[in-house]
Structures are given as structure tokens and as C-alpha cells.
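Hey, quick one: can you model this chain's 3D structure?
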Amino acid sequence: MLRRRTSMAFAGGAYAYPGGGVDPRDEQPVRWAGPSLEEWAARLGLDDPAQAQAVVCAAVRETFEEAGVLLAGETADVVVGDTTGEDWERDREALVARELSFADFLDRRGLVLRSDLLGAWARWITPEFEQRRYDTWFFVAALPAGQRTRDVSGRRTARSGSARRRPPPATTGAS
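Sure thing. Here's the predicted structure for all 175 residues.
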């Protein structure tokens, strides 16, 4: 977990899992391994498999953007071993800046998203009385062999330990 900067508008100073929002481009087709989009939609309580893909892609993308961990590999039974080189960092920064879509990132590197390495854990929606509303999914995953976590988000003041995911597209009530 990370301690959020006290200057952040929502939950400043609170301990939270790394996470972020769904990018509309997270619905772009990607090479996919693991449960089908229909199975993910059922797990997440969504009617639309494209939205399920967007949420799962956002979870994997945000984990790479904020913690340097990538749940993807060259084939459906392989996981990238090391994501710490300069070329990885350039791609990670391009993802953060939204200069590169996650689908293009995976395609450029010839990678398959490993949805089978991700587990849906919980869903949390902020109470109605809150001014800022969030619809958040939490996921769990084991750290792939050869990879290491690192805070590259710039959103923390202290570290404690895991990984989270955040809102679906605005059409499902998230921001």
C-alpha cells in the first residue's frame, strides 16, 4: 500500500492501493490469455465484455504504470521477467503521459495480456453522500518471477504493500 500525498483532493494522506482510471483506449483489442471477456464480465458484474476488458486492461496497465509490474508475456504461458531497463521506462512513461495506448504498447512488444494471473478481489463504490464518487475494483496478483515492485507513480509519501484498480468508463457511473 502507498500513503497518498496529503495535497491530493480525494483521500489525501490515506493509505491506498496503487491504482487509477480506465482509459477509453483500454477497450482496444489486445492479445489475451486467460478467462474470456464474457467470464470477466460475469466476475465483475458487468453486462458488456468490452467494459470488462477495459477494467482488466486498466488494472494491468495501472499496475505497470505505478508499480513497474507487468502481467504479460510473449505467449499465454510466459511472463515478462524484467521490466526495469531504459526502454521499459520510456514505454511506461509514454503510457502514463497517454502518448501510447496499452494495446499499442502490448502490440509493439509482441505481448499477450495474462488475465489468468489477475484475480478479482472486491468492488467498492463510494457512499452517495461523498462529493467525488468512485466505482473501484480491487484485484490481486502474485509478483511474477524476475520482476520487482517499485513506486514510479509519484503519488505516495510512504509505502506499505499491494495493488489496486479503479473506475470503469463513465457510462457505468465511475469518474
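One thing worth noting: Helices lie at 37-44, 49-67, 86-96, 102-109.
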